[in-house]
Amino acid sequence: MVSGGVTKFAKAHPEMDFRLMCKNAFDRARAEVPNLRLDGIDGTRISYFSDHFTRQLKAASMVQDYLGLNPRGSVRIEWGGATGGECFQAAYEAVASGRMDTCLAIGFETMSRVATWKGNEFIALASDTNFDFPLGGFYTGYYALMVMRHLFEYVRRAKFSHISDEREAQRKAIEYGTRVMAKVSVKNHRNALYNPYAQYPKNIDVAGVLGSDMVSYPLTREQICTMSDGAAAAILCTEERAKELTDHPILIKGVGCGTDTMRLADRPFGKVLLMPHEKPSDYAHLEYPGVHSFRAGRSAGLEAYRHAGIENPGKDLDFIELHDAYSSSEIQTYEDLGLCKYGEGYDFVERGDAFLPNIDYGFPVPRAGTIPVNPSGGLIACGHPVGATGLMQAVFAFWQLQGTIGKHFGSDRLQIPKAKRGAIHSHAGTGSSVTVTIMEGK
Question: What is the CATH number of the domain that holds 158?
Fold first, then answer.
């Protein structure tokens, strides 16, 4: 990867249609590689989630035209919430296969064009419309169900097994778990105070998170990402071409993707897919994946780690930009990606492993800087214009590894010192499709 560009993510960009948003992101990326001419781009991979938001079929073709890239080849990418992450990998594959020397990955979404209730209906169409959708089709409801099981499986049994009254034990588990989840939201919102591209930077505290509107118990408004307008672009090319364009290219070291059934009820139980540093006895009594874990995320992570030569991601990675559609799913994904063992996600937060050392979060983070997660603010604070989100992660990770966060953000508060290797993670549905990409600097 040699360059990237992002528009500010916002509730609405009424002054721009999707084509102009994409051009703004593309122009920002091109400004960093002035030697790259339009005729030096061999083709594109263009991502957006829903034709409904644009009220336009073949919107990718309109972007291709608007950017002046006809008659070169282009492919539209759609994969639910993982659309942007899959677009990034598709561009990588176009270059790695030898088909192209230089490929533009660009994605967008214009979710403000419809009312919020209608947008939630469109998003719900990414669930099983024959089964899930008639039952409600409301994603926050799905994730609330999953985290309740996660709390029972790991918090109730691990921390409150001494309480014989089952209802009281579960109440204690939820009380404890929701406070920990609120800390994730605080982390992401406060990180975003130093990210000018973020939609919702906030100096919020745990009480503010827990006191916000309840959406689906136990998830409150401040623990959930929002619909957004925005675009992001990434330029990928061969190593030889990269030397002509920049002094600071970033290597795509490993890619992985995983899948699972659309319906939670269809997911079979089996053995945990083990990381190299884990052993079967670690999970001898765990019913996996249940509705508490994302097997697709574990599979995607394992494939990407294998390509990149990563044995222990908690030690071998310097940071992760992770798909935190919900504060709860961020904690679940710590475990899926092997940053900690299954069942240790809440302790991972309490220790402060995922936090930055130079940000005041309003509570102790004793091991801050161990492996920062979502230093940008993640989806909860940056927003989630679906087709652009995974590419936004790629651009922010690219700047981290280049050491240019200060240049692009106007402050180096979010710059991770000496970052050499990072991961980006995109997630769709209730974990039905996930991508993980490993990026590495010099």
Answer: 3.40.47.10
